[in-house]
Specification:
alpha+beta, Metal Transport, Frataxin, Chain A, 7-stranded antiparallel sheet, 5-stranded mixed sheet, 23% helix, globular, oxidoreductase
């Protein structure tokens, strides 16, 4: 398994008929990174541990039903918030200030839920947030890994978020930095719309 510097994640392997998950414990201390992988049966794993110098985040082993409930609710609420923003924001002014030639018709939010596997009751939901000349956010469910994947048009780029049940937050590490989904979206969309926004998923 290859690991990007400063980024802990798990990978799956299949050995015979048994699915294994790589558990990565990451310690970030200054510029030092120590990664300790171990292979355990998926059924024996209840959480993946991530540690930083300040806080510890644990990726919960969510059931399919709990995962779908949490993510569907979060994306539904985010869609509603964005639709409200579109109604009140001066999008034409935002585009004029950018001078990039975008128009009101290039701004849209769409959330689609598609049945993926009826037997396992797994759904794949994709939220597309089109912001004209600013680019497009894509936020989607990943039921197999119990994650939310974010593709951002800003310099923050793509990220894969796990859920910490104790802290009730979606988090990830990338390039040695901790990112919380709420904070990231709040910060970036506040810049886009020119007003302070607080997004809680």
């Amino acid at each position: 398994m290859s690991l990007r510097s400063g980024f802990g994640r798990f990978a799956r392997r299949t050995l015979g008929t048994q699915s294994l998950r790589t558990v990565v414990t990451q310690h970030v201390q200054g510029n030092r990174l120590a990664v300790a992988p171990s292979h355990l049966p998926r059924t024996a794993i209840t959480q993946i541990r991530y540690m930083s110098s300040k806080q510890e985040y644990l990726a919960a082993d969510l059931s399919v039903q709990d995962y779908n409930r949490r993510v569907d609710t979060a994306l539904d609420e985010l869609t509603g918030l964005l639709e409200d923003l579109f109604e009140t924001a001066d999008i034409e002014k935002i585009e004029r200030e950018r001078g990039a030639g975008g128009s009101l018709t290039d701004w849209d939010v769409e959330y689609a839920v598609r049945r993926k596997d009826v037997v396992l009751l797994m759904q794949t939901g994709v939220l597309n947030l089109r912001l004209g000349s600013l680019g497009t956010y894509v936020i989607n469910k990943q039921p197999p890994s119990r994650q939310i994947w974010l593709s951002s048009p800003t310099r923050s780029g793509p990220k894969r978020f796990d859920f910490d049940a104790d802290k009730n937050v979606w988090f990830t590490y990338k390039d040695g930095h901790l990112y919380l989904l709420n904070d990231l979206l709040s910060e970036e969309l506040s810049v886009v719309f020119g007003e302070p926004l607080t997004i809680e998923l």
